[in-house]
Amino acid sequence: MRKYIGLKLFKSLRRQVVERHSLRTLFFECTLRCNLNCRHCGSDCRTDSEVGDMPLEDFLNVLDNEITPNVDPARVLIIFSGGEVLVRRDLEEAGREVMRRGYKWGMVTNGMALTESRLNALIEAGLSSVSVSFDGFPEIHNHIRQNPLSYDRALAALKLIAKSGIAYDAITCVTPELVPRLEEWKQLLIAEGIRSWRIFSIFPAGRAGRDDTLHLNEEQFRTVMEFIRRTRREGGIKLNYACEGFLGGYESEVRDHFYMCAAGVNVASIRVNGDISGCTSVRANFTQGNIYRDKFWDVWQNRFEKFRNREWTKCDECKDCKVWEFCEGGGMHLRDVNFRLMYCHYNMLK
Predict the structure, then answer these.
(1) C or N terminus of the chain, fewer CB within 10 Å?
(2) How far apart are CA 17 and CA 173, in angstroms?
(3) Range with lowest mean pLDDT among 6-15, 122-131, 221-230
(4) What is the pTM (predicted TM-score) of this model?
(5) What DSSP letter does each residue of 219-265 carry, written as one string?
């Protein structure tokens, strides 16, 4: 009953957040190039991406003329994402320019190219947070990432970052292979000095949409939820499940907050080709504009209808769902090019 009351209160709070739609996180998808070829990549990135990197000056132009005049930079986090951000040689310059304008910034990386000297240079350029993909034991991680060096490089990167004192987390995309070894994997992370951890489950988009061996079944998914709940109660490592979907009875027990898809509400992205959207995981059919033909702030203030009013999701399996008022049709990134739901977390737990 307490949880139900909490969900009702959060529903009311969410309405206020949507009405204000204050920008708090901005993803800059600065490249689609990558030094790996991961089996589950939702962006289908590759070393020889046909889409060129966005010039830094184009992003800064939007920041200076459209965003900074309308926000308090100290309250907006800019996250550099890709592809693999470390393939950009001007990343330090980008960080310095963002910091000079009063913004904090972070990045998401696979760790392959993160040396101690590169990390120090990035911290000097204002880097304040890092998320590193780390998907399991060597045979699991290297198989997913399709590179025999990827496990060692990711672990080395995490150990460097953990010692640096900046905020970080290890991100694990849990596959069926890892589920029975989660306890063992947790102990390895703790032994290596990693204290912040986030778990995702892989959904059927990009390359993962063509590989059923990466997807959890209902029993495995529930096992993961039980593991996260138990681990959080133990307190040996800070662990959260991703902000991916409504989890029914596990709400508030496997992450620090009730479920809410913040894409287009207080999270926006500028894609490598200039497209304006929610977060970078959302399909291209939800693009709201483009910086090369639209004013970013006008798009942010006056579009994003599908993100902020989710009544359109009351169809198909969501039409008569008893928890729709709390879920509102799931994460925007879980909708395919035809707006249909690809993956329902709540159904996985029934």
Answers:
(1) N
(2) 29
(3) 6-15
(4) 0.95
(5) HHHHHHHHHHHHHHHH-SSEEEE-S-S--GGGTTTSSSS-----BTT
Q: Mind listing the pLDDT tens digit for each residue in 240-251?
A: 999 999 999 999
- Say if residues 175 and 144 touch (Cβ distance below 8 Å): yes
End-to-end CA distance of the chain: 19
The Cα 6–Cα 19 span in angstroms is 20
pLDDT digits (tens, 9 = 90+) for 317-342: 999 999 999 999 999 999 999 999 99
Residues with Cβ within 8 Å of residue 3, at least 6 apart in sequence: 249, 251, 252
Whole-angstrom CA distances from 101 to 64, 78, 163, 228 are: 8, 11, 27, 38
CA–CA separation, 162 vs 62, rounded Å? 33
CA distance 76 to 63: 11
Q: Say how far apart CA 122 and CA 83 lie, in whole Å.
A: 18
Cβ burial of 273 (10 Å; 0-12, 13-18, 19+) is middle
